[in-house]
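Per reviewer request, we include the raw input and output of the structure prediction for the construct analysed in the revised manuscript.
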Amino acid sequence: MHPSKEMPTMTDTDPSLPDICAAIQAAPIKGRRRVVALAGAPASGKSTFADQIADHLTAQGNSAQVVPMDGFHLDNSELDLRGLRSRKGAPETFDIAGLTDLIGRLGTEDKVPFPTFDRSHDRAVPDGGVLSHGVETVIVEGNYLLFDDKGWRDLYDLWDFRIFLNVPSDVLRTRLVDRWLAHDHTRVQAETRADGNDMANARRLSAHRMPCDLQVTLTDRTPLNGFKKA
């Protein structure tokens, strides 16, 4: 049974990695390893944060690995058939059935292959990664891992610990524009993409989010490439 949306959550601002990792390690494990959801809007800093958590856990003797959700983007040809290419990145443009199957296997099987995403070719790569032998904690990062909608909400009970990155909308927009500028967009193109699909997805996620165990609020003082280590 899913918890009430009134369920209280731990909160932190400008996070301390040791405290966050201690909370993760204290969470009960349902399967053979701990499976952690790290959710947040596009450009919220999920990938960077997930890598730092995994590195810190591993350094503390708890082998950890990051598994990104991006490998479950539907192929562009499939999106064209569905008329969804312009909405790429929205919840309905992912293979939620495949993702659900993977999350279940991450908690119960040993070496598990998973798809990755090749941004240079804008396509998923089947079996582009594999869960390493002996991993004790898996950090799965993605936008909609705590999204309250058909299919997505079925992921909820598969997690042992749930983290949500909360970023103010103005900070998020700046990061999104910067991301598109780094992909050779003009300023107008970057702002159009950020204000269109990206921010629409962020607002949708914010409005339909399930409870988490830890909400980390990042401010404009929190750099995208650095979280407090002590």
